[in-house]
């Protein structure tokens, strides 16, 4: 079955109340490359993944070399190192999304005055911790602990190079993500 059939649009219904967040170890497969972590539920490092947007593009960083302050964008999927992410669990139900071989993690960096998501050095700030909640149409929301906002794409655009931002959680496809083992 093609990804287009698996990712059916759910409409624009606003979620009025957040459902309880689930730990990644208990999330069942959503049929679009969802995490299956039952064998590694207690491990600190959960695994290495490509983070796939529902559009078929992937989470990528802007530039040729990873640096702090690099903003995140949608990229074409072609397996470079900039498209691999390590999911590490903290001591609770939160996770860090790290770039392999670096000390860089996803950070919402609200102090900048914008909604963009950046790479920053790991400092264990709440803005660097994420949770994963099932999306009603399949896939997951990636929810920031500090802001309670989710990863989305700027203005709902799906083009290569579109900036990844944080937005209030609503049931729209632009907030749907899946995790594909690398």
Describe the structure.
The protein has a four-stranded antiparallel β-sheet with strand order 5-4-1-12, with no helix packed on it. A two-stranded antiparallel ribbon has the order 2-3. It has a two-stranded antiparallel sheet with strand order 6-7. A hairpin with a 5-residue loop joins strand 4 and strand 5. Helix content is 2%, strand content 31%. The chain has a single domain, classed as Trefoil (Acidic Fibroblast Growth Factor, subunit A) (Trefoil).
Features:
single chain; 182 residues; Trefoil (Acidic Fibroblast Growth Factor, subunit A); four-stranded antiparallel β-sheet; two-stranded antiparallel sheet; 1 helix; 2% helix
Second rung of CATH, namely the architecture:
Trefoil
Radius of gyration: 15 Å
* Number of strand segments: 12
Contiguous helical run count: 1
Strand content of the residues, in percent?
A: 25-35%
CATH topology: Trefoil (Acidic Fibroblast Growth Factor, subunit A)
Using the alpha-carbon principal axes, give the shape: globular
Sheet with most strands: 4 strands, antiparallel
Total domain modules = 1
Helix % is: under 10%
Summarize the SSE layout with pairings.
Elements: H1 3-6, E1 45-53, E2 58-61, E3 72-75, E4 85-89, E5 95-98, E6 104-107, E7 118-121, E8 130-134, E9 140-144, E10 150-153, E11 164-167, E12 177-181
Question: Brief description of this entry?
Answer:
By secondary structure, this protein is mainly β. 2% of the residues lie in helices and 31% in strands. 37% of the residues are buried.
């Amino acid at each position: 079955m093609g990804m287009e059939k698996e990712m059916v649009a759910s409409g624009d219904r606003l979620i009025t109340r957040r459902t309880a967040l689930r730990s990644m170890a208990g999330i069942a497969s959503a049929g679009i490359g969802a995490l299956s972590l039952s064998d590694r539920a207690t491990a600190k490092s959960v695994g290495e993944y490509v983070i796939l947007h529902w559009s078929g593009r992937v989470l990528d960083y802007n530039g040729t070399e990873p640096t702090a302050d690099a903003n995140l964008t949608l990229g074409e999927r072609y397996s470079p190192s900039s498209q691999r992410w390590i999911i590490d669990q903290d001591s609770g139900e939160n996770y860090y999304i790290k770039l392999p071989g670096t000390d860089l993690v996803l950070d919402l960096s609200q102090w900048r005055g914008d909604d963009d998501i950046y790479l920053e050095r790991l400092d264990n700030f709440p803005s660097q911790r994420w949770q994963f909640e099932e999306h009603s149409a399949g896939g997951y929301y990636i929810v920031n602990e500090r802001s309670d906002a989710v990863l989305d794409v700027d203005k709902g655009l799906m083009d290569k190079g579109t900036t990844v931002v944080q937005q209030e959680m609503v049931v729209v496809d632009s907030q749907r993500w899946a995790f594909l083992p690398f």
